[in-house]
Each structure stands twice: as structure tokens, then as C-alpha cells.
Design goal:
By secondary structure, the protein is mainly alpha-helical. The protein contains 4 helices and no strands.
Length: 75
């Protein structure tokens, strides 16, 4: 027997993870748990393709910059 979507949501909340993690859609237990971040992604997704492309391009470059700084940081 498979649980309903609502039951899966309750189980995920109870064990502090996501439904995607329970379904083995991701190995990251905390992916998309932040409702503010999820709303931002939904807002971006609703934009026209040109705007969405520009925003995602900018975000990708910012992430790359931070990763580069971390890689070359003196410890």
C-alpha cells in the first residue's frame, strides 16, 4: 500500500526531510525545505523566459564566484 501525498508530506515533516528525499528523487534530505527559497524559485519560474534566463545566469555566476573564493581561501 502506498501512502497518499498528504501522508507522505506529514511523514516528511515528522522526520524533518522532504517528500522528494523519501521517494529517493534526491539524496539531499534538506533540498527545498526552506519555504522562502522555494517561493523565490517559483517566482523565477513564473517569469518570461528572457528574464528567467538573465536571473539564473546571474545566480549561476554568483555561486561560481563564491565557490572560487572558498577554494582559494587561506586557512
Amino acid at each position: 500500500m502506498l501512502p497518499s501525498i498528504e501522508a507522505a508530506k506529514k511523514i516528511a515533516k515528522l522526520i524533518d526531510t522532504t517528500v522528494g528525499y523519501l521517494l529517493k528523487e534526491t539524496e539531499q534530505a534538506n533540498l527545498f525545505k526552506d519555504p522562502v527559497m522555494l517561493q523565490r524559485l517559483n517566482d523565477i519560474n513564473d517569469l518570461p523566459e528572457d528574464d528567467k534566463h538573465c536571473i539564473l545566469y546571474t545566480i549561476d555566476n554568483l555561486i561560481q564566484n563564491v565557490k572560487a573564493k572558498k577554494a582559494f581561501a587561506v586557512k
